[in-house]
Amino acid sequence: MTAVPVVVLAGFLGAGKTTLLNHLLRTSSGTRIGVVVNDFGAVNIDAMAVAGQVDSMVSLSNGCVCCVTDEGGLGDVLGTLTGSVDVIVIEASGIAEPQAVAQQVLASTNTSVEYGGLVEVVDAVEFAATRLRHPELDKHLRVADLIVLNKVDRVDAAELAEVFAVVTELAEGAAIVTTEHGRLDPGLLFDRRERPRPAQLSFDDLEDHEQHVHALYQSVVFETDEPMHPERLMAFLDSRPDGVFRIKGFVHFGQPERYELQVVGGFLRFRRARWGRNEPRRTSLVLIGVDMSGLEERLVDCVGEGSEAAMFAVHRHTES
């Protein structure tokens, strides 16, 4: 059974998290999205905002997600969603500590879920004021896997360039995308599933999404039948360029087993699995991000036979 990716959506109050989430829900095509909504208050306004648009929703009102322990807490909540959805999005409270939420997902013993990345939404208009009110924003940007600089249509070019430069410096290599009205392409966060569409179309179905800012991410496919050199590939993964957000696929190291690779931001993990009886021994990877130039050539340089000792570099990141 394929594990369900869990994406943590964070950002300070007013940054546009719920707007972005609603956009993902409206443009997800056949992908079934399960949502964990947590608005810090007795009345869960955010849950009301997304009601009716999700396949499954668990509301954790009147308490931050990051304050829920995994012992019968968030892990159980995620467990109620798996099996019926393709991806889970946790919209953390505007005052939640995003790293703590992400760590709960990473620490979960539920094998039916896997970490899908920490996405920090930033208000381009209020960026300077938010940093003054919440100095911890700098830390949030440093630990994020993907930063969504939202509301860029409401600032002029000079101000946007200044904000983008500061965010880039604080992000320390994380991918950064700019959006208007939270219009982020779902394909940047998770793989879309094609299912029969309803007979009645909404206005969002009729909209040409290719014309939006959110369609600017890129993907690169790399395939080879030759084995990959373990140390060279690990050197590539450890020094992957800024802007690469996700890498997924299978790696052929010339070993009896295949290695499933998952990279989300700074998170990197291999899983060993048996080759299928008639499955060709080959490497097949998809890289997704916002600046993908030169990646194919660098991966070609990683092709080559490696010794058994060279596999230690891979084993350090392989689930037992």
UniProtKB/TrEMBL annotation:
Residues 217-303 form the CobW C-terminal domain. One of its GO terms (molecular function) is nucleotide binding. CDD domains: CobW-like. It catalyses: GTP + H2O = GDP + phosphate + H(+). Signal peptide: none annotated. It comes from the Bacteria. Keywords: Chaperone, Hydrolase, Nucleotide-binding. GO terms for cellular component: cytoplasm. Belongs to the SIMIBI class G3E GTPase family. ZNG1 subfamily. This is G3E family GTPase. It comes from Kutzneria buriramensis.
